Amino acid sequence: MKAHVLITGATGGFGRLFADRLARRGHALLLHGRDPERLEHLRKGLPSPGHHRTLVANLDHESGVDTLIEDIGETPLEGLVNNAGFGLWGRFASVPVEWQCAMLYTDLVAPMRLTHMLLPRLIANRGFLINVSSLAGEYPLPWMSGYAAAKAGLSFWSEALACELAGKLRVVTLAPGPSPTGFRDVSGMPARTGGFFRTAPEVVIDRAMHCLDHGGGYCVPGWRHRLLWLMQKTIPRSWGLRILARQMSRSD
Ligand SMILES: NC(=O)c1ccc[n+]([C@@H]2O[C@H](COP(=O)([O-])OP(=O)(O)OC[C@H]3O[C@@H](n4cnc5c(N)ncnc54)[C@H](OP(=O)(O)O)[C@@H]3O)[C@@H](O)[C@H]2O)c1
């Protein structure tokens, strides 16, 4: 059987673009999502639809990830894009802790579990791993504190893993800032937050693929996101947090 690339969250903004780019490059895809109809629609619209399969699972708890792992079965894998994820906007104390734990599971635990299981196959096929993290993983984010914690964990884990796997597997840690996908509506973030830094999803995916083609690494896509990253690195944290708290609390 031809080796596949698994994309989690393939029905979302970044996921669909990854699916399109990778299918155009001739990869056979395992397209994961939660909605079978949207997945099927996506599959049929890709080049060589007969080469791709769809997999349905909710990744916000242990048995959901078990289901996905079971459905992947023994399929040979040459790539894994850990893309599925969501954020939750609101004061920590106001957002039910069960939701926050589900977010941590989806954004951090599920990628680690999938990677751990699939790593031997990815290495055997001299493949690649793309972890879709966020610039929220570079800096504490008031009103989205749990999301930033999950993405900080994902980035730290992904970059450390890349060192362990040097020469064996290309690993991209993708750290975008704001981009117009379904993310904002799902998270409930205030409408204008981070407006200046918004970068088209196409730019994000182009840069991720460019980084992959050049051996992998930590990728902050587009000049607006790189400017935001530079500000995170240079503005004293006490000032930065005050500015962010003002921005993020706008609809509270
Ligand atoms: N857009 C941004 O501003 C931004 C910035 C930095 C990082 N990111 C990261 O980029 C990744 C992709 O997000 P996006 O911007 O493309 O947002 P999106 O359009 O909302 O897509 C998110 C994808 O993840 C899936 N997903 C969400 N919760 C899930 C769960 N519990 N189980 C399984 N699948 C789940 C969604 O499935 P459904 O279609 O079924 O909901 C969808 O396919 C996420 O990891 C996000 O944290 C986004």
**Approximate strand percentage:** 5-15%
Coarse shape: globular
Could you tell me the radius of gyration in angstroms? 18 Å
CATH class: Alpha Beta
Strand order of the largest sheet: 3-2-1-4-5-6-7
Query: Could you tell me the number of beta strands?
Result: 7
Reported by name, the CATH topology is Rossmann fold
Number of helices: 9
In N-to-C order, the SSE pattern is: EHEHEHEHEHEHHEHH
As residue ranges, the low-confidence spans are none
**Mean pLDDT over all positions:** 96
Query: CATH H-level name... which superfamily?
Result: NAD(P)-binding Rossmann-like Domain
Q: Major beta sheet, specifics?
A: 7 strands, parallel
- Give the count of structural domains: 1
Helix content: 40-55%
Query: Which cofactor or ligand species appear?
Result: NADP nicotinamide-adenine-dinucleotide phosphate
The separation of the N and C termini measures: 52 Å
**CATH architecture annotation name:** 3-Layer(aba) Sandwich
Structural class: alpha/beta
Q: Which descriptors would you attach to this protein?
A:
alpha/beta, binds NADP nicotinamide-adenine-dinucleotide phosphate, single chain, 49% helix, Rossmann fold, 9 helices, 252 residues, globular
Describe, in plain words, how this protein is organized in 3D.
This protein has one domain (4-248): Rossmann fold. 49% of the residues lie in helices and 13% in strands. It has helices spanning 13-24, 36-45, 62-72, 97-124, 145-164, 183-187, 201-213, 223-234, 237-248; strands spanning 4-7, 28-33, 53-56, 77-82, 128-132, 170-174, 217-219. Strands 3-2-1-4-5-6-7 form a seven-stranded parallel β-sheet, with helices on both faces. The longest helix is centred in the middle third of the chain and has 28 residues, at 97-124. It starts with a strand and ends with a helix. Bound molecules: NADP nicotinamide-adenine-dinucleotide phosphate. Residues 9, 11-15, 33-35, 58-60, 83-87, 106, 132, 134, 176, 178-179, 181-183, 186 line the site of NADP nicotinamide-adenine-dinucleotide phosphate (NAP). NADP nicotinamide-adenine-dinucleotide phosphate (NAP) is lined by residues 9, 11-15, 33-35, 58-60, 83-87, 106, 132, 134, 176, 178-179, 181-183, 186.
